[in-house]
Structure prediction request, 200 residues.
Amino acid sequence: MILYTERLILRPWSENDAKSLFEYAKDPEVGPVAGWLPHKSTQESLEVIRHVLNGAECYAICEKGSSTAIGAIELRLNGATDMTKRDDECELGYWIGKPFWGRGYVPEAAKEVLRRGFEELGMTTIWCGYYDGNEKSKRVQEKLGFVYHHTCTEVPVPCMNEIRTGHTNYMTKEQWKRNGCGNQGIVHEVKNTAAEHRAK
Prediction:
């Protein structure tokens, strides 16, 4: 599955993306604030593609006109998230390389992924969270219209060997409809490339 927005292409990750993933994931300002360590090598990035960025609804964020992966966005379905145990709920996660901060790419990508979740995957609620101090992620969720749910002061972050404060937000399908998120100039176009993806 490939999704398109006005400026972006959201596509499945490929092992060929290891070099570009490492380029952006090695930055110490990108991963730690989201709870994961900077990548140390292209080989580590390749393993992450194989074992982490392999979810059914995990997409590489690319600018139109370029095949380079500059970030990731995912709907973590039941079994891949600790935010819900329901099949009709999931968790939104995302990050983008530092050179692309401030361009509004993550909200743009997230609007399309939310649309897919609610319209095509049958989700009734989508959850999203951020660690205390991650103001960029907080602002993205505010822009998208997520609603505050709760704060937990003792959240284990295994990759960082830390305990943090985490804030959890949510959006229901009804809230999404009221926010008009499906009608904000985003180009809704999808292509089913499952056969192509399997062939890679």
In short: Residues 182-200 have pLDDT under 50 and may be disordered. Residues 105-120 form the longest helix (16 residues).
